[in-house]
Amino acid sequence: MSEYDDPPQPDRRDGDDLSYKGPDRRKMTCGVLYTCYGTIGEVEDWLDDNCEADYELAIEGIADDLVSKSLKIMFEKELDKAHFIKEYAKKN
């Protein structure tokens, strides 16, 4: 190996714990698209207070007038999704 060669890269399959450490999206088994007309913080607060398991919230789009926001909410548990739809989404 000369001084101009790149050093060998570790084999990511060798179990040296070099894998990606971001959120495990595989555990988010179900989701819903929701149009929010209030603040996103209100939705997050409700989810924090009412979900038994993890969830992820992503902004899919915001209207030009900034009033409506399209949110993608992924839930770890189907029960949390059903609870969100019944108790929050249908009332707001």
Description:
The protein has helices spanning 40-50, 78-89; strands at 30-36, 55-62, 69-75. It is α+β, with helices and mostly antiparallel strands and 92 residues long. The protein has a domain at 28-89: Alpha-Beta Plaits. Strands 1-3-2 form a 3-stranded antiparallel sheet.
What's the SSE blueprint?
Elements: E1 30-36, H1 40-50, E2 55-62, E3 69-75, H2 78-89
Antiparallel strand pairs: 1-3, 2-3
Quick synopsis:
With 92 residues, the protein is an alpha+beta fold.
Short descriptors:
about 90 residues; alpha+beta; Alpha-Beta Plaits; three-stranded antiparallel sheet
Number of helices: 2
Neighbour order of strands in the largest sheet = 1-3-2
Number of strands: 3
Annotated CATH architecture of the domain at 28-89: 2-Layer Sandwich
| Low-confidence segments | none
Helix content: 25-40%
How far the N terminus sits from the C terminus, by CA atoms, comes to 65 Å
Shape field: flat
Overall SS class: alpha+beta
Beta strand %: 15-25%
Task: Indicate the CATH class of the domain at 28-89.
Answer: Alpha Beta
Average pLDDT for all residues: 85
Question: The CATH topology of the domain at 28-89, please?
Answer: Alpha-Beta Plaits
Radius of gyration: 20 Å
Q: What characterizes the major β-sheet? A: 3 strands, antiparallel
Order of helices and strands: EHEEH
